[in-house]
Amino acid sequence: RKEVEQDPGPFNVPEGATVAFNCTYSNSASQSFFWYRQDCRKEPKLLMSVYSSGNEDGRFTAQLNRASQYISLLIRDSKLSDSATYLCVVNWAYSSASKIIFGSGTRLSIRP
Amino acid sequence: DTGVSQNPRHKITKRGQNVTFRCDPISEHNRLYWYRQTLGQGPEFLTYFQNEAQLEKSRLLSDRFSAERPKGSFSTLEIQRTEQGDSAMYLCASSLALGYSTNEKLFFGSGTQLSVL
Lengths: 112, 117
Fold this sequence. Notes:
The structure holds two protein chains of two kinds. Chain A is mostly beta strands. Chain A contains no helices and eleven strands. Chain B is mainly beta. Chain B has strands at residues 5-7, 10-13, 19-24, 31-37, 44-50, 53-57, 65-68, 75-79, 88-95, 107-108, 112-116. In chain B, strands 2, 4, 5, 6, 9, 10 and 11 form a seven-stranded mixed sheet that branches.
């Protein structure tokens, strides 16, 4: 089983739609959670952290369910510029080290 | 430019040759990560350093791969006896993490695209 699993998509939705992605992780000791965005042929960039109580940043809402070990990202009123791959990221610490693991990404394409 | 810098941007090599990549992190960052990414996949963790100490190395990483960060600043990733399966984008990222904190933001370089013929 992969440490972080995502639906690869692609999700193809019209501009203005609401779209949601889910991600599951296998290590219950995971401590920090993030969503990164990666544009075609570019490096990943942090979109937002995910907190236990859920958090919102403009049109983006992230949720964490520790009991079920999944993370979600909701994008409201989607824009053409939201077209990208969204990477779910999990960080767990053990002893004196930590490990940051990326999911395989969910591709999103917004059409006019 | 004070971002993460990687060199070279592209590397084409013949199977069996050795290659070395360099990463210069953001200067005040104490952690440095190496990832490998192939088309349609997310970045795959290879190894990371906290200052000059290599704290974790992926079990998937063969002994042909070695990384160093001798003075806790720049890092090199060497692949010996390259194979066609090593063809990928090699990404470096750095972060500033306090103590054993896991709440760290990664800043990535543009990567080195390796093609093994």
